[in-house]
Amino acid sequence: MTIEPAQEGSGRVEDRADGDGAAMNRFKDAEHLFRVALVFAAGALAFVVVRAILVPKSFGEYGHYRGTAIAEIAAQPVVFAGHESCETCHPEVPAVKNKGKHAKVNCEACHGALAKHAEDPGTVEPAKLETAVLCVKCHSKNGAKPEGFPQVDAKEHSAGLACDTCHKPHSPVIGAGGKP
Amino acid sequence: MNMSRRQVLLLLPAAAVAWESILAGTPEASPNYKLTEHWWGMLVDISKCIGCGNCVRACATENNVPEGYFRTWVERYHVSDFNQAEPVVDSPDGGKEGFPPMLEEGGKNFFVPKMCNHCADSPCTQVCPVGATFISPDGVVLVDKQYCIGCRYCIQACPYGCRFLNPKTETAEKCTLCYHRITKGLTTACCEACPTGARQLADLKNPSDPIHEFLRTHAVQVLKPHMATGAKLYYNGLDGSVR
After folding, report:
1. What is the ipTM of this complex?
2. Is the domain of A98 the same as that of A82?
3. Distance between CA atoms of residues A23 and A21, nearest Å
4. N or C: which end of chain A has fewer CB within 10 A?
5. Rounded to a whole number, what is the distance in Å from the CA of A40 to chain B's nearest CA?
6. Contact pairs from chain A to chain B, CB under 8 Å
7. A81 interfacial to chain B (CB closer than 8 Å)
8. Is residue A6 part of a domain?
9. Domains in chain B, please, with CATH?
10. Is A92 a member of any domain?
11. Is the separation of the CB atoms in A96 and A180 below 8 Å?
């Protein structure tokens, strides 16, 4: 690098020209600063490099978190298929159910999670339901239930008989008709 | 089932297509789901809850919630006529198997389903030291399991007690609003299993969502409004004694 004589009074060029002794003395003092600066520079570089390695690419994509975490969480498998899925293959059930009092009760509220069955009905068979257990989960008498909700004291009401000896699960009001 | 083999065979391709679309995958991968087009919340109608525990069971099944921990649970309130300020609250096993008959006579009795309020200004995400919990652009408070260091700050910070430390993974866990379902166009497991419509998923950015009509026409409240958490779990018919 060639150093052109700069503006008057910049001092630098003269220092150089001054001869070794003075320059070395000056540098001896400056050396401390130089070293500190070097340490800082090395530290900053290390920080940048380590940060680049440790912080995932997607961090900060949407905010102060790993953006790809969203997709990872969304990739969890579904366990409840949803009633729309059931109804594509079992259209005869909603045909009856939707006219009755259980119209708003979804399939899997009674049958349990059945995504595996919906995916592969040939090999995954839904468990048979025990109505004496199932129906009272919703219909047993309880003082905290809304007053309008139909509740029975199972002991009095059915005397141990399974509820589906008298009620049709998909259309529960007696005499309301409907096959399933 | 009275369906011929031929009918079932005819239905299979249709169902397969429906199922494929359900499993269409991640929000980025799914062209139908845009993060910026949704803002999720939930409506809980206390006057409809029958305390059957279907939501608690469904949540545990869908999300593999460890035994004894709850992402959603149901509380039963008994408010006596003479002491409104001190209700008797019980929640045996989170209400998972329903509730025994009331012990107390008279008064006011009702069920309150609880879960993460998916706050817009959530205290839990603010205290996380590593950016492992956050509010997604569509308004769901989520936990990044890989990033969580299990320090429990968020569990302390949640005013609603909705978080716990998963004993197996040692990471914070909470309701994801069934993020893996709502991004595929399904409702949450608890809403799917609720027999009375006491819980309803709500997309506050969707102008045709019935939530808007409901919020306009009902006296709706959130829990602990004084904490200004921006809670998005809206309760209809919430009694003042509920905390």
Report:
1. 0.83
2. yes
3. 6
4. N
5. 25
6. 162
7. yes
8. no
9. 1-238 (3.30.70.20)
10. yes
11. yes
> Taking the CB of residue A143, how many other CB atoms lie within 10 A of it?
18
CATH of the domain at A118: 1.10.287
What range does the domain containing A150 cover?
129-171
| Chain A partners within 8 Å of B50 (Cβ) | 138, 142, 145-146, 149
Q: Does A19 fall in a domain?
A: no
Would you call B22 and A104 a contact, using CB atoms and an 8 Å cutoff?
no
The pLDDT mean for chain B works out to 90
Is the domain of A139 the same as that of A166?
yes
The pLDDT averaged over each successive group of 10 residues in chain A (180 residues) is 50 50 66 92 96 91 94 95 95 94 96 95 93 94 94 89 93 72
| Residue B91 vs residues B24, B63, B77, B78, B234: alpha-carbon distances, Å | 38, 21, 9, 12, 21
- Counted domains in chain A: 3
pLDDT digits (tens, 9 = 90+) for B121-150: 999 999 999 999 999 999 999 999 999 999
Residue spans of beta strands (DSSP E) within B24-163: 40-45, 72-79, 88-90, 108-115, 133-135, 141-143
Cβ neighbours of A161 (radius 10 Å):
12
Assess if residue A13 is contained within a domain: no
Q: Which segments in chain B show pLDDT lower than 70?
A: 1-31
Tell me which residue in A70, A106, A138 faces B27 most closely, judged by beta carbons.
Answer: A70
